[in-house]
Design brief:
Two copies of one chain form a homodimer. By secondary structure, chain A is an alpha/beta fold. The first copy, chain A, folds into three domains: about 50 residues, no CATH class; about 130 residues, Rossmann fold (3-Layer(aba) Sandwich), CATH 3.40.50; about 130 residues, 3-Layer(aba) Sandwich (Rossmann fold), CATH 3.40.50.2300. Chain A contains 13 helices and twelve strands. In chain A, β8, α11 and β9 form a beta-alpha-beta unit. In chain A, α6 runs parallel beside α7. Chain A binds a DNA duplex (16 and 16 nucleotides) through α2 and α4.
Chain lengths: ~325, ~325
DNA sequence: TTGTAAGCGTTATCAC
DNA sequence: GTGATAACGCTTACAA
């Protein structure tokens, strides 16, 4: 494999390699030489080797992106947004898929820490002490997506209010027996904040929180199915269910339908996510739309800003973007 | 940002940097020194700079992955498979999202060609002359996923037979008026091969192909909706529809349901994809399951093999993997 | 088994 | 405006 390098180009153009380098970078070259060089470079399709450049300048034009599970609708849309944005500036992205393993998150933070990337965009599910301690030791920009955090620039969703609004929607329709299906509160956004929204909405309407109406599982349809079964087989049965994710809700709907309950006549159901599924189930699921692609774009944008402060990365830039949400009111509630 | 380098480590360990390098690579070091070095490296958390290494060895431990649209279920699962597989061997992946633009495919092939990666995994929708010409000029391994090609190792789906089997399923149920909703034949796998399967299935059963039953659109639900409308508003109406993708089929189902047709009583429908959607629509969609994650894993596996022939990359290794499919017979056909 | 020194392809410094 | 030359951090002959 013959690599044509800057020296070859210099020879062909009859100048020194410094001049070629200047042509490529600051552009400080006479018009005469500029033309000659341009011609040579076009005809040879020469591209500077990025590793050599990186070694010298410590700039890689690579952004490390850590995602919990690339094969989810959420993560893949976020990645799409990041990719669209940073590629405008000549950056590429290095994907680290953690398969929801915290150990792998730490591992990839470590890997990215030492080399290879100019910045990290971390799509987080939780930020433990361990996360924060290694993140603090990283000397280049980190942007967090999907969790709110004091310590880093971040793009997050308004989980508390989305959840609260959704539950208020049910309350406004007169519902008082509203069950909640959630996930572990270690997941601050989905587990903790959405639960808080649920509780506060009830409080605001003077409805007392009932332990039997509160269930916790994982993100799967199965989990939704099982927990709906639990809910409907206890003495006190809800007349509405709010699930923290579409998958859970759809799983629950499946149980309800299997058991002959009519949605929304017998029971209402809603959730958060606006997944493709939510739009094709019967009845169509009432849910909250989150702007995942936008989240990725904004995250990429912040990263580009941070990297642009060529006076060196300033820890002072702490942009935090609350992305909001849009209620998608469809036919699963009454 | 202070970078601790191999020289520092060498000083601390009281040996030369060559010894450190050997410790890190071939391991040709005395036990005494090995222990000393190990201690130093652990206490300093030293990691060799990969760009310096890459510059010297021409090995980057990076695989470029080109996908048509990362936010689709298909692509994101393929990427997950690739990532899982190659990360076992210490490789990372660089994602290029082309947003279905052929120009961008070419652009990224060019970018990856010149530097940066040890191999390319290309999830292709079509392979034009332009693609092949630049691919031929690339001197390191390329693996193609989702299209069958003579020139490169590839992992592909059996589109012809999946399609044929699906249509035969309808024929076996006694259907004779079977419509087809496809996409452009430039997409060899989805457009051309699946159409061929449809036609040959009909032929095998002595059913004549009718122009009015053949529709072509894009991959969207909208397209399915509109083309179903066309089909049902012409003189000759089908009693069954085979769509080349789940999205198209679900769009069509929506039209049919909106118009009061009963599925499968009035009309049967099936497709290929086994997307999440297909499992939650009513009735559940009969479709063919493709092993996307496996495709990614196999693609990664082939790449690792190609890269392992450390006698240099041999163009002779031409593994081609036909992944098969599994029919998911559900309630949308009768 | 170890150390010395050259070299990978760039950019940065400095003198001209 | 330009060209030598050193330097980035690592691997790898080669010599010891």
């Amino acid at each position: 494999m013959i690599i044509i390098n800057i020296i070859e180009i210099a020879k062909l153009a009859g100048v020194s390699k410094s001049t070629i380098s200047r042509y490529l970078n600051d552009g400080y070259v006479s018009d005469k030489n500029r033309l000659k060089i341009q011609k040579i470079i076009n005809s040879t399709a020469y591209k500077p080797l990025c590793h050599a450049k990186a070694l010298r300048t410590k700039i890689t034009n690579l952004i490390g992106v850590i995602v919990p599970k690339i094969s989810t609708e959420t993560a893949s849309r976020v990645v799409e947004g990041i990719s669209n944005e940073v590629s405008k500036y000549g950056y590429d992205i290095l994907i680290a898929n953690t398969n929801l393993s915290v150990d792998k998150e730490i591992k990839y933070l470590e890997i990215f820490k030492n080399n290879q990337v100019d910045g990290i965009i971390f799509m987080a599910t939780k930020l433990t002490e361990k996360h924060l301690s290694i993140m603090d030791s990283i000397e280049f920009p980190i942007v967090v997506i999907a969790q709110k955090t004091e310590n880093y620039p971040c793009v997050y969703y308004d989980d508390y209010n989305a959840s609260k609004d959704m539950v208020k929607l049910l309350l406004n329709k007169g519902h008082r027996e509203i069950a909640f299906i959630g996930v572990t509160e270690e997941d601050i956004s989905v587990g903790f904040e959405r639960k808080r929204g649920y509780i506060d909405a009830l409080k605001e309407y003077g409805v007392s929180y009932k332990e039997e109406f509160f269930k916790k599982g994982d993100f799967s349809m199965d989990s939704g199915y099982k927990l709906a079964a639990e809910l409907m087989n206890q003495n006190e049965k809800p007349k509405a269910i709010f699930a923290v994710s579409d998958s859970i809700a759809v799983g629950a709907m499946q149980y309800l339908t299997d058991m002959g309950y009519k949605i929304p006549e017998d029971i209402s159901i809603c959730s958060i996510g606006d997944s493709k599924m939510s739009r094709v189930v019967t009845p169509k699921l009432t849910t909250a739309h989150y702007f995942h692609k936008t989240a990725g774009e904004k995250g990429g944008e912040i990263m580009m800003e941070l990297l642009n402060k060529n006076s060196g990365y300033s820890k002072k830039i702490m942009k935090k973007i609350n992305l909001g949400y849009r209620l998608e009111i469809r036919n699963s509630i009454k």
